[in-house]
Amino acid sequence: MNLLDLFARKTKLPEPGTALPGRAAPITRPGAHFVNGRAIAGPYPEGIETAVFGLGCFWGAERMFWQADGVYATAVGYAGGETPNPTYDEVCSGLTGHNEVVLVAYDPKRISYEGLLKIFFEGHNPTQGMRQGNDVGTQYRSGIYVANAAERQQAEAARNAYEAALGKRGFGAITTEIVDRPTFYFAEDYHQQYLAKNPNGYCGLGGTGVSCPIGTGVAAA
Fold it and tell me: Of the listed 57, 92, 203, 212, which one is catalytic?
């Protein structure tokens, strides 16, 4: 297989019915957050809400969110594909359709959903399609997975604002998918808070350098 064929295979989502079969049981039972000791799978305290984002390699993406004031806990996992309870190797094969994503549990009294969107859009390049920097594949696509109409409205407004700002800087159109939140599958334990466990580990993220206020009261991460 030549490089062009390999690139095409890794950047094309599998057709329905062709994804790997997966398994009935979860591959892991997540424990405590390595950084703050909180239960990453919940139950969360009253008032804590959750959001899901995909922005390239989930190691670096998760760190951006756990460092934000108002974020209660984070976890990495897989979402947006066909294969139930996939493994990391299966996701990397490109045959599950899943994206590497971050689950963010946050206190909306301390950080708004718009604030999370600001971290998301300014923490990666959302114009690259099925890749992020040197990481190529469907699991590195930019995605916002919304739980309700209000989140969709805010996500679409943020996308439009950042697309206008990026266009002035010579970037192409934003390729971020904004879809209803699919099933979230927790990744293996060694991926959770990876960069806290491995401070010199691979991050893989690079922003565009564009800061864009998308609403009132939105603080930068």
Answer: 57
- Assess whether 203 carries a catalytic annotation: no
Q: Summarize the chain as % helix, strand, coil (round to 5).
A: 30, 20, 55
pTM above 0.85, yes or no: yes
Structure tokens at 138: 């469907």
Mean pLDDT of the chain: 92
Indicate the domain borders of the chain: 39-197
Report, as ranges of residue numbers, the positions in the chain whose pLDDT lies below 50.
Answer: 1-6, 216-221
pLDDT in tens, 186-205: 999 999 999 999 998 998 88
From the candidate CATH numbers 3.30.1060.10, 3.90.1010.10, 3.40.50.620, 3.40.800.20, the one assigned to the domain spanning 39-197: 3.30.1060.10
